[in-house]
Design goal:
single chain, alpha/beta, five-stranded mixed sheet, two-stranded antiparallel ribbon, 6 helices, elongated
Length: 218
């Protein structure tokens, strides 16, 4: 008996289906292998991140600490890649405002060491780093001073600046791992940005923020 055309077509379709099933099976196996590899990579990354965090914590990261003298400063800076150091005076009210914000950021940004140092206990260091206005934040990367936040000029020139604003400013200096938009200060309107620009121009002309000057300049 001759083979019917319908039987030939049916067999052909069955063969195609078998091939498709085979290919799908291979794809599923491949996807499972890929997923397993991705899972392993993520697990390794998490372990590495946890190990790094523990190392930072062992070096005094994760808290805002005062160091007793300028001698301690060099050792603290040497062992950490990124450091924010607040040069302050007890008599300067604005230093206490900074303290509040820095304590919050120290817990949030464990990758950076946050310190404070009384300028009256660090005359040599204050002179070397040219600390002329109090408060001043020295921002250090790999043991070298990369930037300064002098007074509150860069923070909107107001005592009521937010922690987010300070975080943004530190992010601009790359001294913390900042995930926001560096091109624009947080929650700042266009009008406020214009005001900030004007303040910066005044600073260049020598009429900067009215904060306490270091006693050595008096």
């Amino acid at each position: 008996m001759a083979t019917q055309p319908m039987d030939i077509l049916t067999k052909a379709l069955e063969k195609v289906e078998e091939q498709v099933d085979s290919e799908l099976s291979k794809l599923n196996e491949l996807e499972e292998d890929d997923l397993e590899r991705l899972k392993q990579k993520r697990l390794e990354a998490l372990k590495k991140a946890q190990k790094q965090k523990q190392e930072w914590l062992s070096k005094g990261h994760g808290e805002y600490r005062e160091i007793p003298s300028e001698k301690d400063f060099f050792g603290e800076v040497k062992e950490s890649k990124k450091v924010v150091c607040h040069f302050y005076k007890d008599s300067t009210f604005r230093c206490k405002i900074l303290d509040k914000h820095l304590a919050i950021l120290a817990k949030k940004h464990v990758e950076t060491k946050f310190l404070k140092l009384n300028v009256e206990k660090a005359p040599f260091l204050s002179e070397r780093l040219r600390i002329k206005v109090i408060p001043t934040l020295a921002l250090l990367i790999d043991g070298k001073t990369k930037d300064y936040v002098v007074g509150f000029t860069d923070l909107g020139n107001t005592d009521e600046f937010s922690t987010d604003m300070l975080e943004w400013r530190l992010g601009c200096a790359d001294v913390i791992s900042y995930s926001g938009n560096l091109m624009e200060p947080p929650t700042v309107t266009k009008k406020a940005v214009t005001k900030l620009t004007k303040v910066e121009k005044k600073t260049i002309r020598g009429r900067g923020y009215d904060s306490d000057s270091d006693s050595e300049d008096d």
